[in-house]
Amino acid sequence: EDREFLRTLHRVEEAERLWSAEGGKPDRLLQRGRPLGEAEDLLAKRPGFIDKGLRAYIIASRSRAQRAARLRNLVTAAAVVLAMVALSTAWWAKRSQDEAKQQQGIAEEQRNLVEQQLAEARASLIWSKLEFRTGDLRPHEVNTLWELAIAEPAIQAAFLRQMNENRSLTLKFA
User: Fold this and answer.
1) Which of 5, 35, 166, 168 suits a disulfide with 30, CB 3.0-4.6 Å?
2) Which pTM value belongs to this model?
């Protein structure tokens, strides 16, 4: 155990000499994991063998490792927050898209209903003119009735029903 202690002490002292010789560059500090763990064990188990310079080196290495860990945690937290924002934005966009499609469907149904009501109103107007008129229908009125009757089965049925009920109207289609 003493030999392992001495080997570890020698490795850490050598690393500290390089760090000091290069002006205390951060990239020469002990990396987290085994190198820093062994140095911290030296400091904890046999502090009497550790001089002031080596102690400063181990503490600087620990501080750098802690800062790096905090930075990793911060980056991880930021990534989680960004992912949550992205997911909530995607959910909101999908929900809005679904609602827009639903509203579009309602609008199309209403437009179709209005178009049908307009067609029925136009047909009723022409029929009322036809019943109170003594002359023949104008060509554009005949075309309008025929177009409405072809386009809308309900109007076609009403058209044929009225023609069958009042044969005198048929003569006006001359």
Assistant:
1) 35
2) 0.55
User: How many Cβ atoms sit within 10 Å of the Cβ of residue 163?
Assistant: 13
pLDDT digit of tens for each residue in the chain (174 aa)? 789 889 999 999 999 999 999 999 999 999 999 999 999 999 998 888 899 999 999 999 999 999 999 999 999 999 999 999 999 999 999 999 999 999 999 999 999 999 888 877 777 776 676 666 555 666 677 677 777 777 777 767 776 776 677 666 666 554
Phi, psi at residue 24, to the nearest 5°? 75, 35
Q: Give Rg (Cα) of the chain.
A: 46
Q: Are the C-beta atoms of residues 57 and 29 closer than 8 Å to each other?
A: yes
Query: Using the 8-state DSSP alphabet, how is residue 32 labeled?
Result: T
What does the alpha-carbon distance between residue 143 and residue 125 come to, in Å, rounded to a whole number? 14
Pick the closest to residue 162 from 151, 171, 170, 174 (CA basis).
170
Largest CA-CA distance found in the chain, in angstroms, rounded: 127
